Amino acid sequence: MFRLETEVDKERRILLGRRLHEDNGNASAGLRALRSTSAEHEVPLEVWLLDGQGALAGGLSGRTWAHWLHVDLLWVDARHRGLGLGARLLAEAERLARDDRACTRSRLETWDFQAPGFYRKQGYEVAGEIEDYPPGVAEFILVKRLTPAGPPPKAPRGRLLGRRNRPK
């Protein structure tokens, strides 16, 4: 005989998570391969934008796991929007995830009235759309490949030839 309970129970939730984690690892070679690596555990990643007085002007909160950056929250105060600060926050999070945590991809969710166009401009592609989540709103799931930073461009050698000093 079984019974159902609906109360919030932190200890059971932790136990449930452990058991699911164990079962998932047993069922998936990919998850088993993550065991005992730096990518096995979720690690918070946060980037803060502070104004001249040290007040919060924007920020990004996310996490890295399994060589992925997951952006949970990105916000810039309305007074500072349109200055490229959101792009700077996102780029810094991607850089940290790629260079310090070996992440190769990034993912996030955004609603249709928020910023899907902004994320597309930053190189993200729509991987999925959920209509009516919540009712009357569409949620987008976007992903981006995080490419390694290349070496800085080399300075040109020799002289540059313009129209006036081209050899004849």
Determine the number of helices (DSSP H or I, runs of at least 4 residues).
4
**How far from one another are the termini?**
97 Å
Described by the principal axes of the CA atoms, the overall outline is globular
Radius of gyration: 23 Å
Largest sheet: 6 strands, mixed
Structure description:
The structure is a single chain. This protein has 168 residues and is α+β, with helices and mostly antiparallel strands. It is built from four helices and six strands. The chain is globular and about 65 Å long. The model is unreliable at 163-168 (pLDDT under 50).
Compile the SSE list and pairings.
Layout: H1 10-27, H2 29-34, E1 43-50, E2 56-65, E3 68-76, H3 85-101, E4 105-111, H4 116-121, E5 125-130, E6 139-145
Parallel strand pairs: 3-4
Antiparallel strand pairs: 1-2, 2-3, 4-6, 5-6
